[in-house]
Design brief:
The protein is α+β, with helices and mostly antiparallel strands. It is built from four helices and five strands; from the N terminus they run αααββαβββ. Helix content is 47%, strand content 23%.
Length: 221
């Protein structure tokens, strides 16, 4: 029995509608309730397996990591770059003691080079480690002072000379200039008024910048 064109179109339309209904039923009744959760579980299981594998690899490297940590710890303990004092006050004493020792060694004649004053200063600046600073004033000739700075900056723990200012004292006229300790003296053997900061670092956290409150001013009525 041959179907008419109208009947054939009706059959195709019915099949299409049936497929749409089956697809909707699958999406609403099967996929979102059964298939999608299982796919999500499978993805999570895959991620967990990868994490487990990474943890196993890390665990296998534990002896090597512990050895490296021990080496770093030993290096830090033997690191002579830092001041070994417990606090800033004792570190300041160590700085000035070191300076006195170097001056005594380099200038046997106290009239040629001597320390006029030394005092601690506190700079409000952010640094990784706690910096201890001694503000020093000396009366010394340039040649001797150059040797003193060399000894200070090439010793352990690491010390730093900065904020250097040198004042020439000759004939009552005082002229000020700044320069490096390695420069040549203006007058050979002449005593100079020298001021600088001598600093070192403690193995302690440095200062954090202060955060000033905004809008703290009084409002005029």
């Amino acid at each position: 029995m041959r179907l008419t064109p109208e009947a054939s179109k009706g059959r195709y339309l019915a099949l299409a509608l049936l497929l749409v209904v089956v697809l909707i039923v699958y999406l609403l009744g099967v996929h979102w309730w059964f298939v999608a959760p299982h796919l999500d579980y499978a993805s999570q299981m895959s991620d967990l397996r990868e994490q487990q594998l990474k943890f196993r690899e890390t665990t296998a490297q534990r002896p090597q990591i512990e050895t490296q940590l021990a080496e770093v710890s030993t290096f830090e303990k033997n690191n002579l770059a830092f001041l070994t004092d417990a606090d800033a006050n004792s570190a300041f004493s160590s700085l000035t003691q070191k300076l006195t020792q170097v001056v005594t060694m380099r200038a046997a004649d106290a009239t040629r080079c001597s320390i006029s004053s030394k005092q601690p200063i506190n700079l409000a600046q952010e640094e990784l480690y706690l910096r201890v600073i001694a503000q020093v004033r000396m009366r010394c000739d340039m040649e001797t002072f150059a040797h003193i700075v060399y000894d200070l900056e090439n010793s352990n723990p690491y010390l730093f000379v900065d904020q250097l200012a040198i004042f020439k004292q000759a004939g009552g006229n005082v002229g000020a200039f700044a320069g490096s300790a390695g420069g040549k003296p203006t007058v050979a053997g002449a005593a100079l008024d020298i001021r600088f900061n001598l600093s070192g670092y403690l193995r302690q956290p440095g200062k954090k910048p202060e955060v000033k409150p905004q809008g703290g001013g009084k409002r005029s009525e």
